[in-house]
Design goal:
Blueprint: E1 6-11, H1 15-25, E2 30-36, H2 40-50, E3 54-56, H3 59-64, E4 70-73, H4 80-89, E5 93-97, H5 104-116, E6 121-124, H6 126-129, H7 131-141, E7 148-156, H8 176-192, E8 197-204, E9 210-218, E10 224-230, E11 239-243, E12 246-250, E13 259-264, E14 270-273, H9 285-297, H10 307-324, H11 329-336
Parallel strand pairs: 1-2, 1-4, 2-3, 4-5, 5-6, 7-10
Antiparallel strand pairs: 7-11, 8-9, 9-10, 11-12, 12-13, 13-14
Helix pairs in contact: 4-5, 5-10, 8-10
Length: 337
């Protein structure tokens, strides 16, 4: 029996929006109904490319379109609060790119709006929906390596990025931490929950964003996480989870792995490869499938990417930015209002 088609609206037309739309096109129970950009010509070109029935030159028209079941917000994260908030207030369900917002306050506001309007809301943390990451978490939860003692993870891009690039623009929430560091932080908290203490150090750019950040998170259990992100050095994207009776190593691309290795004390290593049937490792389809499953079930949030988990990650990111001294212009404006 065919599943009911879910009608998507795409808000923004950049690279991540195109990647998501390409995966939606391959899902038989998904339809791209409309797309919006602040430039109508961009929306029309995107709509023609991906078969959208309607293209809007403003966000408000997309938010008001009652033929849309859910909106995917793919703007830079500095605009997530405005774009996702507009859609929620108009009664649309929302999948919002990560990091959820610039800061905890904005995330709290979106969660409050979703609950006020009884709408579905989810952060597009595709890592949490990845089948192999879910398998890794299940093994950890089942005690395959005993009690978790340490988590290590890194994500760095080689660059160099010029000062005008969005990754170095404070007005766009630039820096390594929010764009890349959200992955190591989210990985650690997927396995250990919200930390009890946060420490960090960073190299800042002349513009005042972090070029690379190191973080140590700790829990009352004694567990610790050593995390790193960078936009001035390409890293291996590795991760390791060490427990009291073994270890799991992800040799590369931990947020969309090709494989991981389980090393239990006294036993031969066990390799867990990705299933080719799950699609390419860069696919975003798993998060789209989860959103559609939740909508059909009448759920207002996903158990794979719960809102409290997104709030907890934003609390950690806020704490780290406080430690390293990164503050964005929009936050200074908000503080004076």
């Amino acid at each position: 029996m065919a599943e009911q088609t879910v009608r998507w609206g795409i808000l923004a037309t950049g690279g991540i929006a195109a990647a998501f739309a390409a995966d939606l096109v391959d899902l038989p129970d998904a339809e791209i109904t409309a797309v919006a950009s602040r430039r109508r010509e961009s929306a029309e070109a995107f709509g023609e490319r991906f078969g959208a029935a309607r293209a809007y030159g403003d966000w408000e028209s997309l938010a008001a379109d009652e033929d849309i079941d859910v909106v995917y917000v793919a703007t830079p994260h500095s605009a997530h609060r405005a774009a996702a908030g507009l859609c929620l207030e108009a009664g649309r369900n929302v999948l919002c790119e990560k990091p959820f917002t610039l800061n905890l306050r904005e995330t709290e506001e979106l969660v409050a709006l979703a609950r006020e309007h009884d709408r579905f809301l989810m952060e597009a943390m595709w890592m949490y929906c990845n089948p192999l990451v879910r398998r890794l978490k299940a093994l950890v939860n089942d005690g395959a390596i005993g009690e978790v003692r340490t988590v290590q993870a890194d994500f760095g891009l080689a660059g160099p990025f010029p000062a005008a690039h969005r990754l170095r623009d404070p007005a766009l929430g630039g820096g390594a931490l929010l764009d890349l560091g959200v992955y190591p932080v989210s990985f650690a908290q997927l396995l250990l929950g919200e930390p009890d203490a946060v420490a960090g150090s960073a190299l800042l750019s002349p513009e005042g964003v972090d070029l690379q950040t190191g973080a140590v998170l700790s829990w009352e259990s004694g567990a610790m996480a050593a995390l790193h992100c960078s936009i001035v050095g390409g890293t291996g994207g590795t991760a390791s989870v060490t427990g009291s009776r073994g270890r799991i190593d992800v040799p590369s691309g931990f947020f969309h792995p090709e494989r991981f290795v389980l090393r239990r004390d006294g036993r031969d290593p066990e390799e867990f490869p990705a299933d080719p049937a799950d699609g390419p490792r860069t696919t975003l389809r798993h998060e789209a499938v989860e959103v559609m499953r939740a909508l059909r079930a009448g759920e207002k949030e996903s158990p794979l990417v719960p809102l409290e988990g997104s709030l907890a990650v934003m609390r950690t990111l806020d704490a780290l930015r406080e430690r390293i001294g990164v503050r964005y212009p929009a936050e200074a404006v908000a503080a004076t209002v």
